[in-house]
Amino acid sequence: MKFLYTFVCSKILNKMLKIGITGCIGSGKSTVVEIFAQLGIPVYNADFRAKFLMEKSPTVIAKIKNLFGDHAYKADGILNRKFIADKVFSDTALLTQLNEIVHPAVFTDFEEWCNTITDKKYVVKEAALMFESVSHTQLDKIIVVTAPEVLRINRTIKRDHVSSEDVIKRMKNQFTQEKKLSLADYEIKNDENELLIPQVLELHHKFSV
Predict the structure, then answer these.
(1) Is there a domain that residue 1 lies in?
(2) How many CB atoms lie within 10 A of CB 47?
(3) Chain-wide mean pLDDT for the chain?
(4) Which domain, by its residues, includes 183?
(5) Which CA distances in Å does 151 have to 20, 22, 190?
(6) CB-based contacts of 45-49 (< 8 A; 24+ apart in sequence)
(7) pLDDT per position as a tens digit, 18-64
(8) Do residues 205 and 146 share a domain?
(9) Nearest 5°: phi and psi at 143?
(10) Which of 16, 110, 179, 196 has a CA that sits 20 to 30 A from residue 119's CA?
(11) Which residues touch 121 (CB under 8 Å, ≥6 apart)?
């Protein structure tokens, strides 16, 4: 009993922080995450893992096929992203149903990933739809990366080779930057005026104590 008590107390005292990083499309959150990674902090990319689970998890695949039909996947088993994107971006109810399949799967996957890390003060989870999904509930602190809207639109146009209208349409499926900020614990400004590295280092030292 004494050993069990000591073990439980040790786990509580050495609790690894789970830090979320999010931001509106084009905010440059991936750049911020890369700086944390260079500092040796483990990073979980929720959007990448969501895509992985949508093509590798039998449970997720079955639910997506049930929702969209067999055309949701190509003959080689690869997710038919264009087919699904065309469906969900014109039907918010369908997008909600898709998120209700994918977000819980990513939630569980993140928890399992965290359990494999035992020697870090904190880890980082990067996700575009952190507040829009349930994932913010499993995090200790959340950072929002911000940038002016015009800059965010121009970055996305250049990165994805899409029109400004397409970017604005995608923005409508996310919380506004102001709302994200109101729910966050910290802000990192990526406006091309303030230096990123000092902002990241300040938070890194805070989380590493």
Answers:
(1) no
(2) 13
(3) 90
(4) 15-42+121-209
(5) 23, 17, 10
(6) 45/126, 46/106, 46/110, 46/125, 46/126, 46/127, 46/128, 46/130, 46/135, 47/126, 47/127, 47/128, 49/106, 49/109, 49/110
(7) 999 999 999 999 999 999 999 999 999 999 999 999 999 999 999 99
(8) yes
(9) -105, 135
(10) 196
(11) 16, 17, 207, 208, 209
Residues 51, 108 within the same domain = yes
Residue 206 in domain: yes
Number of Cβ within 10 Å of residue 162's Cβ equals: 13
Nearest to 37 by CA among 157, 97, 126, 135: 126
Burial category of 123 from C-beta neighbours within 10 Å (exposed 0-12, middle 13-18, buried 19 and up): buried
The two structure tokens encoding residue 124: 């980082």
As given in the structure block, the two tokens for residue 69 are 């039909």
In the chain, pLDDT over 70 holds for what percent of residues? 93
Residue that wins the pLDDT comparison between 166 and 181: 181
Which class for 124: exposed (0-12), middle (13-18), buried (19 or more C-beta within 10 A)? Answer: buried
Number of structural domains in the chain: 2
Token pair of 163 as six digits: 């029109």
* Domain match, 199 and 136 both: yes
Asked whether residue 110 falls in the same domain as residue 203, the answer is no
Give the global pTM. 0.85
> Please, are residues 36 and 124 in contact by the beta-carbon 8 Å criterion?
yes
- Collapsing DSSP to helix, strand or coil, 195 comes out as coil
